[in-house]
Fold tRNA N6-adenosine threonylcarbamoyltransferase.
Amino acid sequence: TGEPLVLGIETSCDETGVGIVRGTTLLANAVASSVQEHARFGGVVPEVASRAHLEAMVPTMHRALDEAGIALADVDAIAVTAGPGLAGALLVGVSAAKAYAEALGKPLYGVNHLAAHVAVDIVDHGPLPEPTMALLVSGGHTSILQVDDIGTQIELVGETIDDAAGEAYDKVARLLQLPYPGGPVIDRLAGQGAADAIAFPRGLTGPRDAAYDFSFSGLKTAVARWVERARAAGQPIAVADVAASFQEAVVDVLTAKTIAACRERGVTNLQIGGGVAANSRLRALAESRAADAGIEVRVPRRDLCTDNGAMVAALGAQLVAAGQPPSRPDLGTVPSLP
Ligand code: KG4
Ligand code: ZN
């Protein structure tokens, strides 16, 4: 076929990812994670992440090529996350991508990690309807984006003014003395608790608050206070109930605001991406509320929600197919890319 064969490299945080797509078809998605090396610190340690990327880069590349059954020389273009992310971590991926592109004489595309979280859905559910409203929920970002063109036109509709949703999960897990990363653990525990056990606050939902912005630091503090009070009173902490009630406060606001943004703008397609999109309650509540509002919702399968190389390759393939110009050979990292 004439569809572009694109290899994508992701190293913005703690996952070293190499993915390969042909057009909108996923051929390989190899991921090496340093998450366990960060666990005892309760969060990603940038220097540890950089060193892990350096060690994992070449082996992960080979795993992806084996999985796809192609040779490196077969690819039409190389895409890489240029930002946002940790400076040292990004540098490993960008340096590798530039070296491979230069050695092979192939075009290089530096891409936005956040747009890639949205674009990956294409390999799961086909071309993205435009416009699509995207809810991007990860450890570093929580944003509502209106996607008019995945390659060139994405508008920021709203975002968190403090903690990201995933960050809130990680911090609350820490308060509850649960392991890092907190999202998957709280997701699992919440299934055994009552979501209405504790009335935690819904951030920025007052009449004067920005309609599409989020705030999770007040919620985190409320959970901390609740835990402190229970401990001071010598009561056992009902961890499953705290997890379920906290989770409900997060996903209630995420889904309500995103669907309100869709309605106000007349956008009937919603895509949810980023690590927190793996959350079972978020997926269920978004589906039921979207159905009530006549909105089509798409969420990629779980392993495509967390950081990976396929998302970068998917966005790269869209850029190649749209005839976008490649990045310059002096492409740099942009840790605070908007
Ligand atoms: O997208 P991602 O892999 O990396 C960033 O770009 O940040 O997201 C990682 C975040 C972590 O905060 C993690 O706790 C959260 O996603 N996460 C979840 C779940 N799985 C991962 N949060 C809630 N529920 C989950 N099932
Ligand atoms: Zn991410």
